[in-house]
Specification:
By secondary structure, the chain is an alpha+beta fold. The chain contains 5 helices and 4 strands. Its main location: membrane.
């Protein structure tokens, strides 16, 4: 009877160890996963603006897309759309075509627009993740 009791106790202990290892490895183990960031886009209408070049003969055609990571900001984007569109137009009208045509000119404009959108929405760079401009055509 002593041998049977020892075998039963050993089997129970072994089962508890196996269950404990399984719990640690599959439930508690592993590296914590980073949350998945979902990027959404808010597309503004295509627009045209005069540039600040002498004579005012240069025109830019553009369309801005605002990329964001928090759907709660969509309401703010929609309620501030007119202000954002107006501010983008002012940024474009204050720009020279030669500055926009430089290798980093479009990138600088994207950053200026992003900074302005963040300011208007009282947001941050994590929520307003990027600005895209396409098309970006200067004529004249």
């Amino acid at each position: 009877m002593n041998k049977k009791l020892i075998i039963i106790i050993a089997a129970v202990v072994l089962l508890l160890v196996v269950v404990g290892v399984v719990v640690v490895v599959f439930v508690l183990g592993g590296e914590p996963k980073e949350p998945v960031i979902v990027y959404s886009e808010y597309q503004l209408d295509e627009a045209y603006s005069n540039l600040a070049d002498e004579g005012g003969t240069k025109i830019i055609k553009y369309q801005v897309v605002i990329e964001y990571t928090d759907d709660a900001i969509l309401t703010e984007l929609e309620s501030n759309k007119t202000k954002i569109v107006n501010n983008i137009d002012e940024l474009m009208r204050a720009s020279l075509s030669e500055d926009l045509m430089k290798p980093n000119g479009k990138e600088r404009m994207r950053q200026r627009i992003r900074d302005m959108v963040i300011e208007v929405l009282e947001s941050d760079e994590e929520i307003i993740s990027n600005i895209y401009i396409a098309p970006f055509i200067i004529q004249g």
